[in-house]
Design goal:
Blueprint lengths: L1 H15 L8 E6 L3 H13 L4 E2 L10 E5 L4 H10 L3 E6 L2 H13 L19 H14 L4 E8 L5 E7 L7 E7 L7 H15 L6 H4 L1 E6 L4 H6 L61 H13 L3 E9 L3 E4 L11 H19 L4 E4 H4 L7 H7 L5 E7 L14 H17 L3
Parallel strand pairs: 7-8, 7-9, 9-12, 10-11
Antiparallel strand pairs: 1-3, 1-4, 2-3, 5-6, 6-8, 10-12
Helix pairs in contact: 5-6, 6-13, 10-13
């Protein structure tokens, strides 16, 4: 008992050392004309003071912006100057982070879990790495785990292959955790691995007819940093220092989802190394992006579907992200997404918006989904922005992990069945 108390005290004191967001406010802002929209785009692309949780998407479309306390008055003046609609969604972001942390601390844990993770809480990269190796050891006939390479800080990036054997099968490639703070992404991807394997007997067709190549966390350094005692819960990028941004910036990290080499740096990213959307000094400048590229190319001839999981907003997005033009096979992409989302919505009534990234959201070049289709040649490529629509933002309560996963699983089944 004393040991547990000491561990709890240590954990609490370690968390207290993380970057704090006292006085930070989350605004929901809606530009009403071209001038106000352009002002927000300029702020998004050029200022490192504001954290756009939801980027500018268009006139009369709302977005979420986290504003530090020193900039709140200036930001409100900007809203008034451009006659923008706005409201404060979170009066103090740190309070929301603390409440979510306290809720997770109250979740009862299984005394002797079979694996290093369950899906009643969120787990760090070390636990996820242990889990994939444990499930491979428990199911050697179905699961193999390999490393696609090491991250900047030296972490092995795991690739889980799930297959019942046999030749000539089509494949689905899945990744999660490209943006560190989007915790629900690895929580879903690891759950999917478990569902396919542990519940194989309930639905063998999904493994017997399809091979799965799954990378649960492709930004391990950034993801682990969101859990680290001296880390930052809201960190987004990887953790390699850069000095090739505007003004020779020495800020940390590149947005890996702006770093892929298909129409790289053609809009919706930043040359400012301090920006959350910094695209890197060149396409595939980041070792993690290189490893993901090479892993996908290694199975591209077999792969028919690529899914990358994010949060938040509830969108099922198709290419392209770099242009408003649509792929020649957009109708097929769209129709499959509609079928999948219909099944998702049928579970709890959760609504998703479907469409191309640029037309539904905003221009964002250098994304992994664009590259998977345009670079690796995988026909059906999607970005899935899971729960929620912004009430909790990146702090989706742990109690929603299972409901989120159950509904998205229904969509995944539709995707898989399209390959039978």
């Amino acid at each position: 008992m004393k040991v547990l108390i000491l561990l709890s005290i240590f954990a609490a004191s370690a968390i207290a050392l993380q970057k704090r967001y006292d006085g930070y406010q989350l605004f929901q802002v809606t530009p009403k004309d071209r001038a106000s929209y352009d002002a927000l785009v300029q702020l998004y692309e050029q200022s490192e003071d504001y954290d756009f949780w939801v980027a500018p998407r268009g006139i009369d479309i709302s977005m979420d912006v986290m504003v530090p306390p020193a900039r709140v008055a200036t930001f409100i003046e900007l809203m008034h100057a451009f006659r923008m609609e706005y409201r404060v969604k979170m009066i103090d972001v740190q309070t929301v982070l603390d409440m979510a942390r306290e809720e997770r601390a109250q979740i009862p844990r299984v005394a002797t879990p079979r694996y290093s993770v369950d899906w009643n809480s969120y787990y760090d990269f070390n636990a996820i790495s242990a889990f994939v190796n444990e499930i491979a050891a428990a199911h050697p006939n179905f699961v193999t785990v390999s490393s696609i390479g090491r991250s900047h800080e030296g972490r092995d990036i795991p690739l889980v292959k799930i297959s019942s054997g046999g030749a000539g099968k089509k494949a689905i490639v899945i990744d999660g955790g490209i943006h560190a703070r989007e915790w629900i992404s690895p929580a879903f991807v690891t759950w999917l691995i478990n569902e396919l394997v542990e519940n194989y007997a309930a639905h063998p067709q999904y493994v017997d007819n399809v091979d799965w190549y799954i990378m649960p966390v492709i930004n391990p350094d950034g993801y682990q940093y969101t859990f680290a005692p001296l880390g930052d819960r809201l960190w987004r990028k990887n953790r390699r220092p850069n000095n090739n941004g505007i003004g020779g910036s020495s800020c940390m990290g590149t947005d890996m989802n702006r770093n892929f080499g298909f129409h790289w740096n053609e809009g919706g990213s930043s040359a400012n190394g301090c920006s959350d959307t910094f695209h890197g000094g060149a396409a595939f400048s980041e070792v993690e992006s290189q490893h993901v590229r090479d892993a996908i190319l290694g199975v591209a001839n077999q792969a028919q579907i690529y899914l990358t999981f994010h949060a938040y907003g509830q969108y099922w997005l198709t290419p392209w992200g770099y242009t408003s033009a649509l792929p020649s096979d957009y109708t097929q992409l769209y129709n499959l997404a509609v079928s999948a989302v219909n099944q998702l919505t049928a579970v709890y009534g959760t609504r998703y918006t479907i469409g191309s990234s640029t037309n539904v959201l905003y221009v964002a070049s250098g994304g992994s989904d664009d590259w998977a289709k345009g670079g690796a040649g995988i026909p059906f490529s999607y970005t899935v922005e899971m729960r929620d629509e912004g009430l909790y933002g990146f702090e989706l309560p742990a109690r929603q992990i299972i409901p989120n996963n159950l509904e998205v699983w229904e969509a995944i089944k539709v995707m898989a069945e399209s390959l039978f």
